[in-house]
Amino acid sequence: MGLKNELGNTYGYLTVIARAENTKEGRAQWLCRCKCGNEVIVLGKHLRSGNTKSCGCY
């Protein structure tokens, strides 16, 4: 299974702005900017599942 390009996608309050380093297990992570201005690194599967929608401000 190939890497899904999430750049520019928006999930809740988060907009994907860059690729982050994989987890130790090799899972894809993304750097996101929240609507409030904070940046947070989130697992791709958490973005797509709706599990993570903000930096924690919401």
Unreliable segments (pLDDT under 50, ≥5 consecutive)? none
Spatial ordering of strands, largest sheet: 1-2-3-4
Approximate strand percentage: 25-35%
Provide the number of structural domains. Answer: 1
Intertermini distance: 32 Å
Number of helices: 1
Q: How large, in whole angstroms, is the Cα Rg?
A: 11 Å
**SSE class:** mainly beta
Averaged pLDDT, please? 94
Shape: globular
- Helix coverage percent of residues? 10-25%
How many beta-strand runs? 4
Descriptors:
4-stranded antiparallel β-sheet; globular; 58 residues; mainly beta
Please tell me about this protein's structure.
- Helix content is 10%, strand content 34%.
- It has 58 residues and is mainly β.
- The chain has one domain (1-58).
- The protein has a 4-stranded antiparallel β-sheet.
- A hairpin with a 4-residue loop joins β3 and β4.
- The longest helix has 6 residues, at 44-49.
- The protein starts with 9 loop residues before the first strand and ends in a 9-residue tail after the last helix.
Task: Give the arrangement of secondary structure elements.
Layout: E1 10-11, E2 14-20, E3 29-34, E4 39-43, H1 44-49
Antiparallel strand pairs: 1-2, 2-3, 3-4
Brief rundown of the structure:
This protein is mainly β and 58 residues long. The protein is built from 1 helix and 4 strands.
